[in-house]
Amino acid sequence: MSTSKPRIAIVGYGSQGRAHALNLRDSGFDVTIGLRPGGPTEIKARADGFAVKTPAEAVKGAELVAVLTPDMVQPQLYGEVIEPNIAPGACLLFAHGFNVHYEQINPRDDLDVVLVAPKGPGALVRREYEIGRGVPSVYAIHQDRSGNAEALALAYCGGIGGARQNAIKTTFKEETETDLFGEQAVLCGGATKLVQAGWETLVEAGYQPEVAYYECLHELKLIVDLFYEGGITRMHEFISETAQYGALTRGSYVIDDNAKAQMKKVLEEIQDGTFARQWIAEYAAGNANYKAMKQGDLDHPIEAVGKKLRANMKWLANAPQPQAAARP
Ligand code: NAD
Ligand code: MG
Ligand code: MG
Ligand code: MG
Ligand code: MG
């Protein structure tokens, strides 16, 4: 097979799948999409001009199969569709190490098995590619039967634009554990709770909910943009002396030794498999707790306040559409 331009099947056309497919095609790869007929994203893939086949047919014709469905459906998909159809010696690629690391998928012995994980949501992977940049990506090799697994991972990484930035070599274990930790403790879990608790504190003290929204949620973007461009150093260059002194003396009231001890607990539950077992059991039982807790976030009063305020921020109409919503 061609190591520099393997024939690719992408199974799944959601956040990552669509971005990878569009970027790889623009990079000159032959890309086929595997989707369940009548599934929710089939129309989108066809509208984008891709050949869409059933997952089984797409897998059969490919030299490299990228598994870009939700993590929880991958084990059954692998067992029922991928393993029976994937060509001997082909390359199996994941964008997150979860199923291989926690042994929910044990790939066939003859396959190359690699990971290419962009460190950003799909919409950003596409947007950065279009403007000639790329989202930083990590890659890893789980099985190298052909002797070309690393070259294949790097070809894919280059094709989605990830190698334009530093592609960092990692392991399935490191990618899985750090990705879960980041989204749980800092990016999604931590940030959400920080914003909600800050807003609640101001509103409970009698301040206007709208003013509290701007201070605790809206302005977070300005700070995060500074982090993104130049780290915490850049934030200190741009905020007032008063804000700096307040941050330096009061930040650790909130994120104190106890908060850090809790972060260690989050990490331990990832490392010892507690989190994975709990999430797999929740999914298998129909996601009742997951759905109820998510509804709690959607029903939090800060959401109604924000919806009303954002209706008057006309520039947000041009903001990336929901599919851009970060799903690290
Ligand atoms: P998604 O939920 O956005 O999209 C899933 C796609 O899979 C949809 O097209 C859906 O129709 C399809 N699908 C669902 N069940 C299927 C089945 N049984 N057979 C065939 N197709 C099926 O998923 P996503 O967020 O892009 O995640 C894909 C992978 O990328 C995951 O491993 C995830 O951990 C990883 N990842 C995601 C992000 C992110 O920001 N979303 C970032 C890095 C890595
Ligand atoms: Mg302020
Ligand atoms: Mg200020
Ligand atoms: Mg992530
Ligand atoms: Mg993740």
From TrEMBL:
InterPro entries: 6-PGluconate_DH-like_C_sf, KARI, KARI_C, KARI_N, KARI_prok, NAD(P)-bd_dom_sf. Mg(2+) 2 binds at residues 179, 215, 219. NADP(+) binds at residues 13-16, 36, 41, 122. It is an enzyme of class 1 (oxidoreductase). Its EC number is 1.1.1.86. PROSITE patterns: KARI_C, KARI_N. Residues 171-316 form the KARI C-terminal knotted domain. Coiled coil: none annotated. Its cofactor is Mg(2+). One of its GO terms (molecular function) is ketol-acid reductoisomerase activity. It catalyses: (2R,3R)-2,3-dihydroxy-3-methylpentanoate + NADP(+) = (S)-2-ethyl-2-hydroxy-3-oxobutanoate + NADPH + H(+); (2R)-2,3-dihydroxy-3-methylbutanoate + NADP(+) = (2S)-2-acetolactate + NADPH + H(+). Substrate binds at residue 240. Belongs to the ketol-acid reductoisomerase family. NCBIfam families: ilvC, PRK05479.1. PANTHER family: KETOL-ACID REDUCTOISOMERASE, MITOCHONDRIAL. This is Ketol-acid reductoisomerase (NADP(+)). It comes from Marilutibacter penaei. The gene is ilvC.
